[in-house]
Design a protein that fits this description.
Distance between the termini: 47 Å
Keywords: Cell membrane, Lipid biosynthesis, Lipid metabolism, Membrane, Phospholipid biosynthesis, Phospholipid metabolism, Repeat, Transferase, Transmembrane, Transmembrane helix
Number of domains: 3
Radius of gyration: 24 Å
Membrane topology: Multi-pass membrane protein
EC number: 2.7.8.-
CATH architecture of the largest domain: 2-Layer Sandwich
Strand content: 15-25%
CATH superfamily of the largest domain: Endonuclease Chain A
CATH class of the largest domain: Alpha Beta
Largest sheet: 16 strands, mixed
GO molecular function, one term: cardiolipin synthase activity
Subcellular location: Cell membrane
Shape: globular
Length: 495
């Protein structure tokens, strides 16, 4: 034994080399079997390329980030909720659509019900708000009217000078005996440390129950869990009667980042305020997230109640999505609508990194004569996503898609989609691979002529603040930028 040990010490360089190459070859072979399993071809190729270039780095990264799967206990809860939602849906008929709606809209309603088990509700009313500070002030005003419950859920929440009044309203109602429940994404809020800590102290001081969603605990259930699965929803529900949802986070418009303030960056959002039966559906979605994080199952009768306001004329249907849904609900809905469009598609998305199916749907729509417009930001706040997004502009422009660049220094963070003059989809979901696979999102499909007029006014406002990208201009961009865009596109597929 002593001789063997001495021999190993004398030949450690040679043995290390043999072990390195053996492990290198083994990881390459194993990756060819493991990586492509139940994975999109583009994502599989990107992961395989990363592993083949640097196996000892790429393969461990794949083990950490290669599976868009929730922790085991969370998956068990998801199965419970999905089963309960489908049982509930069996007894709730969809609201009647008008006789003149296109047949494809009826198909979209059926698809959404199959995907998320939420029914189509009628007699809703809604208003839109695109001014950042006004929406926060309006939500605070609604909170102050609460008599029984206030439910708040945001990807990013923080206490600063712009959100101070909203948190003051929460605390006032909590002190008055109203039940206030707050959820925020762990990483989304934690990444704004000063504001995050101030928020937690304020909520704790007034006895408000709050939980971080998807807490970053890499080792859960006895196994490593992917740390970048996030809850990206944004909702405020007051007494189950008033509901806010959309794209905006609850933090100052510059996100309190020194780099943003130095560059003059600020965010442009679209939020919607709803009344009517759809608010109970939003409340039910909040209750599912509350169950995941708190272990408390809120009684359905306290969450879903008959709406006292049924004077509206809009049909609304909620579409939840995320890693708990294997069907990629938001992507399925977007693609169905793109292929159904006959006259016009307007898509507003801050991060546009489509998968192959969505890109094909948009390009096909443009080539068959549908007017397609895409609103994105002229500048970006995330280097990788911004440049990956730009890599798609050439094929879109060549197909006839109009690309509008929202002028700097504003980041267009709003997210909505309109199809013909028939339907609007708005909410928290970007049109990128992260929103399709890794983030819990909330989208709302809205039908109604009056609402379409409101959203068209928003689109016209955004158009007036944007410039149209010309194909000749785009083709003349520096070669180095083309290289960066394409490399970032490749990296974005590693999900």
């Amino acid at each position: 034994m002593t001789e063997l040990w001495q021999w190993l010490l004398d030949h450690w360089v040679l043995m290390g080399t043999y072990i390195y190459w053996a492990l290198d070859i083994l990881l390459r072979l194993v990756s060819l079997i493991v990586v492509p399993r139940n994975r999109r071809p583009g994502s599989a190729i990107a992961w395989l390329l990363a592993i083949m270039v640097l196996p000892l780095v790429g393969f461990p990264l794949y083990l950490m980030l290669g599976k868009s799967q929730l922790p085991r206990r969370r998956r068990e809860k998801q199965r419970i909720v999905n089963r309960l939602m489908r049982v509930r849906a069996q007894d709730i008929p969809d609201s009647e659509l008008d006789d003149d709606v296109p047949s494809w809209l009826r198909s979209a309603v059926s698809l959404n019900r199959e995907l998320g088990a939420f029914p189509l509700t009628g007699n809703n009313s809604a208003d839109l708000e695109i001014d950042y500070d006004t929406s926060i002030a309006s939500m605070a005003d609604d909170v102050r009217t609460a008599q029984s419950t206030v439910h708040v859920l945001f990807y990013i929440m923080g206490l600063d000078d712009r959100t101070e009044d909203f948190f003051a309203a929460l605390c006032e109602r909590a002190d008055a005996g109203v039940t206030v429940r707050v959820l925020y994404d762990h990483w989304g809020a934690l990444s704004h440390g000063t504001q995050y800590r101030a928020m937690r102290r304020r909520l704790d001081a007034h006895g408000i129950e709050h939980f971080p969603m998807n807490p970053i605990q890499p080792i859960r259930d006895g196994a490593f869990q992917r740390p970048d699965l996030r809850n990206h929803r944004k909702m405020v529900i007051v007494d189950g009667e008033i509901g806010w949802m959309g794209s905006q986070n609850l933090i100052a418009a510059h996100y309190n980042k020194r780099a943003n303030i130095r560059r003059g960056l600020h965010w442009q959002e679209t939020m919607a305020r709803f009344r009517g039966p759809i608010v109970s559906e939003l409340n039910l979605l909040f209750a599912t997230d509350w169950f995941y994080e708190s272990e408390q199952m809120l009684p359905v009768e306290t969450v879903v109640r008959p709406s006292p306001d049924t004077s509206g004329s809009y049909e609304c249907q909620l579409v939840p999505s995320g890693p708990g849904f294997v069907t990629e609900n938001n992507l399925a809905l977007f693609n169905q609508l793109f292929y159904s469009a006959r006259e016009r598609i307007v898509a507003v998305s801050p991060y546009f990194v489509p998968d192959e199916s969505m890109l094909a749907a948009l390009v096909t729509a443009a080539r068959r004569g549908v007017e397609v417009e895409l609103f994105v930001s002229e500048i970006g706040d995330q280097f990788l996503v911004f440049h990956a997004q730009r890599s798609y502009y050439s094929v879109l422009l060549e197909a006839g898609v109009k690309i509008w660049l929202y002028r700097a220094p504003t980041i267009l963070h709003a997210k909505h989609l309109t199809i013909d003059d028939s339907v609007t989809v708005l909410g928290s979901s970007n049109m990128d691979i992260r929103s399709f696979l890794l983030q819990m999102e909330c989208s709302l499909m809205v039908g109604g002529t009056d609402f379409m007029e409101k959203i068209r006014e928003v689109e016209e406002t955004y158009r007036s603040r944007s410039r149209q990208l010309d194909l000749d201009e785009w083709r003349q961009r520096p070669f180095r930028m083309q290289v960066i865009d394409n490399l970032c596109r490749l990296a974005s597929a590693v999900v």
